[in-house]
């Protein structure tokens, strides 16, 4: 039994260690959007389903020695594909740039393909091992003991998931981590082959087995699907509207896995008498916050939404365990759980973006969970007083979730949803604002005298505004990140402006009827659609007098635009030694000045930091101007910062870590 447990834990550890690892590999290729992580979750859920289906077919359709042989063949093929990737790409798991997307078309499909080529077969083999070994063990011991292996495996999953951001990412380059994981996988293959070779495989007699009622299987799928959907919905909400910190991509998944550990270990941990009322309270708090236009406190929002997810997963998975089958149907049970997980992921990751224009998934699936609880409890409790109370209050909470889908009182002129998130054009009394989650991406006044006035982070008191105002000769200006095109407010007849923007929806809004910075410019600025770094790598040197890098204030940090290699690329596109790179480093949650300070020292650049306060017409902004020559610009003493006092890590394409840069005072 111990050898089985060690192999199952190792497989689970590798299964969830590779998820944030691969997320970090592909994140730069797709613009650093938080949707990359939720798409990764969807991919891994689908592969998990495939692995569970494989184990179910092996146990149900193959007899005796063929069960061992089939799994040994799969393990060998997985090891071969991993070694092949290392030979072809130089490092396993990390593909060459030939797979990097060069257009913004169908980013989700391209991302799923890249993930499959990198880790698809090894992940499939890992996913199939846990339920298959548990099914073999269940032929010798009772079902409860076999299911404890599932709880133990989820402990391995938690350790793998937490080890990456805490113990591995801050200290090791990406390629080293990829090699380490690959060696761990080969060790797993040897261990699993040894266990499989001596596994107590028993030939089954399918005709003698009991049949599963369709209603029981449907209940398993539903109770697995709703927590999975809420996992992705809460992840979306946290990274878009509460606190856009990349670490929060992992936290909901940790909560989700912990609920499996608790509920599958023993029935004593889950009791309806306290868990369901606690879920009602957190559901009401969650629904109340969803009705607010802006979270009153990021920390409060984090606690309420994570508390809601924890209780939702505990109740959903607790009720799932109450419906578990006997040992002969164990692989069918795990397959149904995996189907439910994949269905929940597909509904949020694929269906919702096509049918919903806002992030309403949390309200919808929160309400559906309440309905499911009412149905399950009504069936098991019957006409008891507790059963009637659960049904009544669960329906009330479901209605409150529906109410939370109503407008919070903000006048919304346009809403667009795509792979990169939800963009809203909101109308203020005297301006129009572009919002991406909680982050403002541009503002333009409606009245004619102020319509061409540069606003928010680009005001005349900002670092980039002061530099542009000080110039009298024609300028060639590049901009990474378009927003609503506010930078074009500084354009003069002889200037040329060239923007790089990865999100086509942003381009459409900037050129649309609600904002006119682009149309008002004396010469229409060029817009290059695609990832800025990829586009710049394909272009000849542009000879920019000013290159504005404004991609770090949003819901995630595209670290590939803030690496040593990226900085070298930016410098190659400047006209001369007096040309300037202007980096907008304002971010509520991440301190980026230490990273930029390290670049200044690494490349021997002169720097000027302008930290301007907010007022009614501008946002507080923090700009770092970098040049090979001293930057002659008069800055009030209260707006100037000394970059030399900051010290940070050297970010490269191989190593980036936000761990020591997070502003934890949420």
Output the keywords.
666 residues, alpha/beta, Growth Hormone, Chain: A, Rossmann fold, 8-stranded mixed beta sheet, 4-stranded antiparallel beta sheet, 19 helices, globular
Characterization of this structure:
It is a single chain. This protein has 666 residues and is an alpha/beta fold. Helices cover 54% and strands 10% of the residues. The protein has helices spanning 2-26, 35-61, 65-89, 107-138, 143-168, 174-197, 214-242, 251-265, 272-290, 298-322, 330-355, 361-381, 385-403, 463-469, 504-511, 517-520, 532-538, 564-572, 593-603; strands spanning 412-418, 421-427, 431-436, 439-445, 476-480, 496-501, 526-529, 546-549, 580-584, 606-612, 621-627, 640-641. The protein has an eight-stranded mixed β-sheet with strand order 7-6-5-8-9-11-10-12, with helices on both faces. A hairpin with a 2-residue loop joins strand 3 (431-436) and strand 4. The longest helix is centred in the first third of the chain and has 32 residues, at 107-138.
